[in-house]
Design brief:
Helix 1 packs antiparallel against helix 2. The radius of gyration is 14 Å and the shape is flat. The protein has one domain. It is mostly helical. The longest helix has 20 residues.
Length: about 60
């Protein structure tokens, strides 16, 4: 997991490069949208760790 606001993390910089390669292989718009969604999820996962998503789910559940 990255330290918050660390912008030069090698692993974090590699994620968009991999996404770009995946987008280049995409043949349909739906595949591109899926790749873009994964990019956001992978970036958030790397930056904040696995616990971030469960905390979001708990907060959402409490608001409902």
């Amino acid at each position: 997991m990255c330290q918050k606001r660390q912008r030069r993390c090698p692993a974090l910089l590699e994620i968009p490069e991999e996404a770009l390669e995946e987008w280049a292989r995409a043949a349909m718009f739906e595949e591109v949208r899926s790749c873009r969604g994964r990019l956001g999820g992978r970036t958030t996962l790397h930056r904040y760790g696995r616990g971030h998503f469960s905390e979001l789910a708990k907060a959402s559940k409490l608001r409902s």
